[in-house]
Amino acid sequence: MASLLIASTGGAHRLAWKDAAALGPAPRLARPWPAAVAVPAPLLRISRGKFALQAITLDDYLPMRSTEVKNRTSTADITSLRVITAVKTPYLPDGRFDLEAYDSLINMQIDGGAEGVIVGGTTGEGHLMSWDEHIMLIGHTVNCFGAKVKVVGNTGSNSTREAIHATEQGFAVGMHAALHINPYYGKTSIEGLISHFEAVLPMGPTIIYNVPSRTGQDIPPAVIEAVASFTNLAGVKECVGHERVKCYTDKGITIWSGNDDECHDSRWKYGATGVISVASNLIPGLMHDLMYEGENKTLNEKLFPLMKWLFCQPNPIALNTALAQLGVVRPVFRLPYVPLPLEKRVEFVRIVESIGRENFVGENEARVLDDDDFVLVSRY
């Protein structure tokens, strides 16, 4: 027969099941329950007005690490990637995922030479997803494309608890690496940043993402250097600029440029490994050339108007508009995102003509969509 043992140490109450024969005298309860009454664990009274709570100490907590994940995933497999696409998430008219369009877009990335995809990142609108949607999309991507492209799941959060839980789930469904932002809005101290990343790094290969324009807080080099000893640190997606990139590459830390308009120089002049790109959703082949074919000022200048256009409003507004104009995704937006104004839609068609339609994803001609062509979804 099994029974519930309550131990109280320093005010914390621990619950554990023990074999009744080994218990000896009955445990001392402030208000013993009658022997015939089955006591639900959450309702056990320790003292007046107090309920027993299961105390989870560091010794008790065991992350859901998997030997299979360790054997399958190598940090070196991530650090060698030069073109990682922060992939767009397409929607059906009711706001649910359009997996058919998503699969097509992933195949276009693979065909264009992208070696990795960020699933549910800023560009993929992970912040507009429930965690169920988020993990489902990571698992779907791994299941369908994991043998052809590295899947990096955005499982970051401003809550360390949520980041841990989502990362455990992401690796359990097969992602190759995690992307982790620093806690945003409810910002923390330098020591808090270090502790946050130390909590998630043991689970598997990890890319830390520094974009202070969105989080409101820079991740300074002292934080990255403090966690650089973790073998699971694959590198940093850095959006601050070339000097910060060089600061890390001089120390042997892998860096991906998070800015399309800076990635060429970051790669060839400052030592970045590659780029985590928005533009590669549209022109994966040209972004591959930009990262692999050596310094190419001419190509970089040719692509600059597109890169500038993509960030004329906060990402992913322009990208969503562009993919809809190319007929690659339905013109459906989850609010609060809305399409670019008409003059910017006209400008995109001209940019496509300048770079060459053959360099863009999809098969349809770029066209200017009317306002009435777009669907805005507030509930999904």
UniProtKB/TrEMBL annotation:
Source superkingdom: Eukaryota
Family matches, as Gene3D superfamilies: Aldolase class I
GO MF term list: 4-hydroxy-tetrahydrodipicolinate synthase activity
Keyword Isomerase attributed: no
UniProt-listed PANTHER family: 4-HYDROXY-TETRAHYDRODIPICOLINATE SYNTHASE 1, CHLOROPLASTIC, DIHYDRODIPICOLINATE SYNTHASE
One matching Pfam family: DHDPS
Role played: Catalyzes the condensation of (S)-aspartate-beta-semialdehyde [(S)-ASA] and pyruvate to 4-hydroxy-tetrahydrodipicolinate (HTPA).
Enzyme nomenclature, EC number: 4.3.3.7
Name the record gives this protein: 4-hydroxy-tetrahydrodipicolinate synthase
Family recorded in the similarity comment: Belongs to the DapA family.
Pathway: Amino-acid biosynthesis; L-lysine biosynthesis via DAP pathway; (S)-tetrahydrodipicolinate from L-aspartate: step 3/4
Stored InterPro entries: Aldolase_TIM (IPR013785), DapA (IPR005263), DapA-like (IPR002220), Schiff_base-form_aldolases_AS (IPR020625), Schiff_base-form_aldolases_CS (IPR020624)
Organism this protein belongs to: Oryza sativa (Rice)
Catalytic reaction equation(s): L-aspartate 4-semialdehyde + pyruvate = (2S,4S)-4-hydroxy-2,3,4,5-tetrahydrodipicolinate + H2O + H(+)
Protein's GO biological process: diaminopimelate biosynthetic process; lysine biosynthetic process via diaminopimelate
Key words, A-Z: Amino-acid biosynthesis, Diaminopimelate biosynthesis, Lyase, Lysine biosynthesis, Schiff base
